[in-house]
Amino acid sequence: MIFNFPISAAVSTTTLISVPMLVCFFALMIGVGISCRKHAKSVDSFVLGGRSVGPWLTAFAFGTSYFSAVIFVGYAGQFGWNFGLASTWIGLGNAFIGSLLAWSVLGRRTRAMTQHLGSKTMPDFFEKRYDSKNLKVIASFIVFVFLIPYTASLYNGLSSLFNNVFSIPYWAVVLIMAVLTGAYVIFGGYMATAVNDFIQGIIMLIGIVAVIAAVLASNGGFTEAVKSLTESEHAGPEYTSLFGPNPVFLFFVVALTSLGTWGLPQMVGKFYSIKDEGSIKKGTIISTIFAVIVAGGCYFLGGFGKLYYNEMAEGGFITSNGVMYDKVIPTMLSELPAVIVALIIVLVLAASMSTLSSLVLTSSSTLTLDVVKPVMTRKKSVGERKTVLIMRLFIVFFIAVSAVIAILKDTVWKDSVFIAQMMGVSWGALAGAFLAPFLYGLYWKKTTKAAVAASFIFGTGLEIVQLCISVGWFSVTDIPVLSFVFTNSLYSGVFAMVGGLIIVPIVSLLTKKTLPENIDEKFDCYNVKLVTDKKDSLG
User: Fold this and answer.
1) Cβ(135)–Cβ(449) below 8 Å
2) d(CA 173, CA 156)
3) 339, 374 contact by CB (below 8 A)
4) Among 499, 489, 491, which Cα is nearest to 459's?
């Protein structure tokens, strides 16, 4: 993902503006981490912020974990190029399905049941909800295997941007980002992550609005830009139509990127920590508005990508092998004023660091609480301080491993199809395995252990097959149905999630003997009588 900004005066101006902004940004992130140390002394406070995080912090933490630099540089460029302005539906789907509906369906029940069961992570929820340590171990293994490559993929766009503007080597940028993110997460835990996510979210909001305004202005305004796209020989009317040139593929993109958040542990974990009912209501609105602006804005911006077809061709980004989609957004931004470019640098940095912090905190807490601590407590009890220390060590471990993978992917494994595809299937595997068991676990008493295990196997199994097909180990082109399912990881990811939603109830009805005992007691948290104001409930 190389940003091709003009070299010489424009770059030097950009550097002069960017450096002070970055220094202030880095100092603020570390300062927040240090100031939040008092909120990171116990396991509950380090992982969940003491379950007392307000609506603004939770909503922004949810949104910034959702939308990384990948959406701004990669997805916006690719899908904007392929769908035109219809790609805006992806952002709106993210807002109304991935945020509004997710908060409405999962938020309250997740907060109530996880506190009632005393679970701090998603694998821990599976153990306590379904009375099965095996499910917890399997879920922890899935998180470990698929979150690391997902984490490694976050470095790509950011490092190339820094390399081009500041001539900093790839490995140095990866190291800087890893150290800075690790520092404030290790110091302040979830609370530092939430506060920094809020700051980073503000930067993302301002940055997206400014970039869209600048790009539209450079094309004569919105009306003129739409007219140019409609009349372009490389685009045409279908690229300004309601559903674009390929509605079916658009549907699958919307489904995976929107519904997938319902099963991702780093996303659902935000509901564990929210303070109260009022915070859930406010957080739902705030999160949705954030997603409309950030996700909707990114894809809307990408929809004008084909206006820059000639610039892409001149830059060598359109070849016989296809379009280099990662170059679409950078090409669009190459002629913008230096101050906008500087803002983009901080925007992409904020988007990357917010998602990275969420992923490493989720990974370290899961491995510590669900795997390491149970093993250690067989011999002697492990106190709060020691548990938090272990989590901090695993944060270092996860950040180091993901950084090493990112660097090796750019050097030693540069031509490795396996690593690239592994990153691509991570989202689908996690969402496919966890969405159905978690959702049904909150709502349906008759969900069984066997059904959860079946969903784990189906979701991860489907994506492992997708991985094998993508790297060319075998082919299913002769089988029409399978060829369609495994068109790419977007298609198979959607089938993994939808398949889980079908499999879990069917298997549950056939395996009633594996239904957890005292299931009514687990759902008692929903039956607690509360007294509230008339304005909140008619009674």
Assistant:
1) yes
2) 10
3) no
4) 499
To 5 degrees, how large is the angle CA 268–CA 442–CA 454? 85
Among 368, 397, 62, 32, residue whose Cα is nearest residue 187: 32
DSSP-derived pairing of the beta strands 318-319 and 322-323: antiparallel
CA atoms within 13 A on the CB side of 77: 24
Each residue's pLDDT tens digit, 275-322: 888 889 999 999 999 999 999 999 999 999 999 999 889 888 888 778
Please return the burial class of 472, using the count of CB atoms within 10 Å of its CB with bins 0-12, 13-18 and 19+. Answer: exposed
Pick from 421, 408, 330, 406: nearest CA to 159: 406
Q: What is the pTM of this model?
A: 0.90
Cα-trace Rg, the chain: 23
Span 157-170, average pLDDT? 66
Reading the block at residue 363, the tokens are 């990974």
Q: Find tokens 């570390």 and name the residue.
A: 30
pLDDT in tens, 193-204: 999 999 999 999
Distance (Å, whole) CA 252 – CA 71: 16
Handedness of CA 366, 367, 368, 372 (dihedral sign): positive
Phi, psi at residue 412, to the nearest 5°? -65, -45
**C-alpha–C-alpha distance, residues 168 and 153, integer Å:** 19
Q: Write the DSSP symbol of residue 318.
A: E
**Rama region for 167: left / alpha / beta (φ>0; ψ in -120 to 50; rest):** left
Amino acid (1-letter code) at residue 324: M
Residue 220 carries which DSSP code?
Answer: T
Question: First-to-last CA distance in the chain?
Answer: 55
CB-CB contact of 121 with 110 (8 Å): no
For residues 168 and 183, what is the distance between their CA atoms, to the nearest angstrom? 21
> Nearest CA to 155 among 339, 401, 325?
401
Could you give the count of Cα atoms lying within 13 Å of 389 in the half-sphere of its Cβ?
A: 5
Q: How far is CA 496 from CA 93, 386, 435, in A?
A: 19, 38, 10
pLDDT value of residue 131: 95
For 334-359, b/e burial (b = at least 16 CB within 10 A) is bebebebbbbbbbbbbbbbbbbbbbb
CA atoms within a 13 Å half-sphere pointing along the CA-CB vector of 236: 6
Contacts 24+ apart (CB under 8 A), 516-525: 516/129, 516/130, 516/131, 516/132, 516/448, 516/449, 517/131, 519/445, 520/445, 522/113, 522/116, 522/117, 522/128, 522/129, 523/113, 523/445, 524/116, 525/112, 525/113, 525/115, 525/116
